Amino acid sequence: MYIEPIDSPTPPPLVLASQSPRRAELLGRLALPFETLPADIDESYLSGETPPQHAERLSREKAQKIAAARPDAIVIGSDTIVVIDGEVLGKPRDQEHAVEMLTRLSGREHEVCTGVAIAHGSRVETGLARVKVRFRDLDERTWKEYVATGEPMDKAGAYGIQGFGSAVVEGIDGDYFAVMGLPVVLMLELIERFGWRYAFGTLVKS
User: Fold this and answer.
1) Which alpha helices (DSSP H) does 93-197 contain, by range?
2) Are the C-beta atoms of 112 and 46 separated by less than 8 Å?
3) Please, are residues 157 and 150 in contact by the beta-carbon 8 Å criterion?
4) Which of the chain's ends, N or C, has fewer CB atoms near its CB within 10 Å?
5) What is the DSSP-derived secondary structure letter of residue 91?
6) Selection from 53, 177, 172 nearest residue 111 by Cα
């Protein structure tokens, strides 16, 4: 049966305030046209700031910075951090540092916090996804082999769940896509607050 398409206003341009290929991949899976404009911001911690607060703030500042230059667009900002024992594990400095990180995570559970923010003009809405990730208990040789692939070197916590890292993650409790770097459902919920609903390949007025 033919269904008459529903007329809807043209949605604003969509801009991803990130240079992460993982975030671009996830957004691309939704078949939404978008631009990529990385936001260069100071990612230093503020005094007394918790890791989840840090991730959410950075996502907000990224979105706001690009939105200031592109007030016509819906801007998506996101930031992901890995936390264990209350300590944030950033990107490894070198291969040795990556092996140290992975050995520390081996056989244990850690938390991934991904902040996401949507900005349009001067308005911004933010959210946070928190995910528990459990690693297999592997020996140093295996971690060195993983690091030798090069995959861990540009990623927080020195691993990518969607690549070779899928062989070292035993399980997760939460949003898989948040671990990749962009909590898709949370992002779409925030976009809805601006009056736009995802309609499988496009945004329509909600």
Assistant:
1) 95-105, 140-148, 176-180, 184-192
2) no
3) no
4) N
5) S
6) 172
Number of neighbours of residue 5 by Cβ within 10 angstroms: 6
97-116 pLDDT, tens digit each: 999 999 999 999 999 999 99
Whether 7 is catalytic is: no
**Longest Cα–Cα distance in the chain:** 61
Question: Which SS3 state, helix, strand or coil, does residue 114 take?
Answer: strand
Beta bridge partners, 77, equal 117
pLDDT averaged over every residue in the chain: 95
Mean pLDDT of 33-37: 98
Q: Sign of the CA dihedral 46, 52, 53, 57?
A: positive
Give the closest residue to 158 by CA, choosing from 86, 62, 81: 81
pLDDT band for position 8 (cuts 50, 70, 90)? confident
Nearest to 179 by CA among 156, 152, 205, 196: 156
Region 56-66: mean pLDDT is 98
| Per-residue pLDDT tens digits for 131-166 | 999 999 999 999 999 999 999 999 999 999 999 999
Question: Which of 40, 42, 72, 79 is an active site residue?
Answer: 79
